[in-house]
Amino acid sequence: MQINGKRVLLCDCEGTMNIDAKGLAKACNVDETPMINTQLCRSQLNNFEQALSKGEPLVVCCTQEAPLFLETADGYEGRDENSPEIRFTNIRERAGWSKAGRDKPKKLTPKLAALILEATLDIPSSTSVTMSSDGVLLILGTDARAIEAAHEVSDRLDVTVILTGKADDVDPPALMDIPIFHGEIVGATGHLGDFEVGVNHFTPANPASIKALTFDGAGQSGASACDLILDLRGGKPLFTAPEKRDGYFNPDPDNPALVMKALLALTDMVGEFEKPRYVDYDPKTCAHSRNSIIGCSRCIDLCPAGAIVSSPAEDRVTIDPFICGGCGICAGACPTGAARYTLPEGDALFRRLQTVLSTYSGAGGTKPVLFVHDNEYGQAVTGIIARQGNGLPENILPFTVNQTTQIGLDFLTSASAFGASGVTLLINPQKTDEAEALRDDVATTQAVMDGLGYAGVRYQVLDHADPEAIATALVQMADDKTAPEPATPGNFLAMGRKRTILNLALAHLHDHAPKPVDFVELPAGAPFGTVAIDAENCTLCLACVGSCPTGALKDNKDKPQLTFTEDSCVQCGLCRNTCPEKVITLMPRLSFLTDSRKHVIIKEEEPFECIQCGKAFGTRSSIERMVEKLSDHAMFAEGNRIDMLRMCDNCRVVSQMENQDNPMAAGERPKTRTTDDDLREREILRQQAKEDM
Question: Does domain 529-604 bear CATH number 3.30.70.3270?
């Protein structure tokens, strides 16, 4: 069977799952009925080799035996690095090993078709950054175990040991083949290949140590540069989310197995390494700061790895791709889409989403529930449920992402708009603290669906460690009797920035809503809403306009006017924080009115005209308020000096210069004396002399 230019190879794994070949071909919209292999990885391996000979891209519906298939392909004559790619997709644990897979193959067909078509999509690769390590390892510890660990890898890595604390029971080594120091660790920065560890009271080991290792010399302060760090101190790690910091290991020093595992990993960390650039950042649409005033700081507050720092002087944040652990929380929480997750790149995530749901529904599937999980924990749980339990129900559609925490409002609303009855998001229980933003987005999306009349709980976040509990929760949401009816599936293209996709999905949900209300109240922190402006006390200084990152607040170049577009507001708070009069209040809500996409006038005034030349400048209220406040000031108390406040900039300068009471005025300038003046004076004196004679 060929789909999207790729040959699909199917296998029922020795009859452990039933596949309706004709129904599957129809569901995939192809004329060719696929061959269902029974033992493709063993007795029917020649069918795989025959497919290789045709020189077509392959999709093998088996992941367990992927190493065998790749090894076979590598040994196939004429195949090289330029040969068509071979992909693998798991239809066994994710679909076939279930009640429907055993007893009701026709019910399973829509799900199989959705998973297979998803696997045939062309997904663009993401960009990467390069990290280089020369194998310089710094081991931190409190006792002899740090030195023992150093000896384990000293023949493969350039090792230095720094002991902390008392370290008074360490035997002096017979051979000082590893540099050993003592000091107080005060912090660390950097990443794999470029670490710096701050050390105070840094002293070397005394070569004359007898009973116990001693340290002498004047303690110094400085930083130790290294490529790798093994932290065996057993206390607080040097970095937040240490498991996300490449090149840093802090196993429990009391667990030799974990220490040995870390040492084994460290020995392989020499050379150049490619790391995905998980997040693409656009500072132009970032709502973090304007003019050094802070607005939105969600990504900074939520980043567990500390990879995001504020740069208010540049009106942006800085995301370090070398430190970024790829959790995607920043992208999921970003209200403007300035931070965008790039694994996968572009709109591939939404193409996958639409393909899975539209294929399932088009093949006759009902009430699809999307099961979003990561590559590691989610895959493992799915396997356990399939092997030890009843498998996933036929309407549970597994959807693998790099990290579940990368999911945001745009994905959740699009899933419902594309026809999902519900969405279950599985979090690794070890990362449950990282799911705060995801839970907030789930609450916001549920509030929107409730407000539009879509009954039932449609979203749930699971962080169970027990696969049986996860299976129970999935079955409850997928039960045909209690599962909510899905929205009418949309066919819009989810492309562009986050806000664009959100608007498309929300518009579709509203158009087909059981209760198409004009407004939906949202919880605090939601990235939709309006601003309440006290127009009476607003002076139209327009500071809010200059600070608004999305252009929701705008002015009018022809007259003093403030307008607001609710559809563009992300509730970042920059306008509120910038306003000198403090007359702006944020009001989270979602408006479906047409006016929400228009510029609505908040306040406008006639401009104040200069009393001298008639030139328009400023606003009448601001000028009159300024005159009122300064009328009793000593600088404007005499005469008509207060009128200068009612003049434009040019007339004000002229008036100041013409004022006789100008304290800065100089004396009258003497007339310049010339030679003609001297000659004229001499002639006058001569005439006077003649007359006197």
Answer: yes
Number of other residues whose CB lies within 10 A of the CB of residue 98 = 25
Closest CA to 371 of 351, 389, 352, 392: 392
Tell me how far apart the alpha carbons of residues 525 and 550 are, in angstroms, rounded to a whole number: 17
Helix (H, G, I), strand (E, B) or coil at 360: helix
Residue length, the chain? 693
Candidates 14, 10, 30; CA nearest to 22 is 30
What's 158's DSSP letter? E
Look at residue 624 and tell me whether its pLDDT is greater than 80.
yes
CATH number for the region 277-341 comes to 3.30.70.20
Give the contacts of 474 (CB within 8 A, at least 6 positions apart): 369, 371, 392, 393, 396, 424
pLDDT higher than threshold 80 for residue 108: yes
> What does DSSP say about strands 194-204 and 220-226: parallel, antiparallel, or unpaired?
antiparallel
- Please answer whether residues 167 and 204 qualify as being in contact, where contact means their C-beta atoms are separated by less than 8 angstroms: no
Task: For 375-393, give the DSSP string.
Answer: TTHHHHHHHHHHHHSS---
Domain ranges of the chain: 2-119, 130-274, 277-341, 348-516, 529-604, 607-658
Can you identify the CATH homologous superfamily of domain 130-274?
FAD/NAD(P)-binding domain (3.50.50.60)
- Which secondary-structure segment (H or E) carries 354? helix 348-362
Looking at this protein, which amino acid is placed at residue 5?
Answer: G
**Domain topology for 348-516:** Rossmann fold (3.40.50)
Mean pLDDT computed over 84-91: 96
Q: Do domains 277-341 and 529-604 have the same CATH topology?
A: yes
Mean pLDDT over all residues of the chain?
Answer: 93
Confidence of residue 661 (pLDDT cuts 50, 70, 90): low
Q: What separation, in Å, do the N-terminal and C-terminal C-alpha atoms of the chain show? A: 137
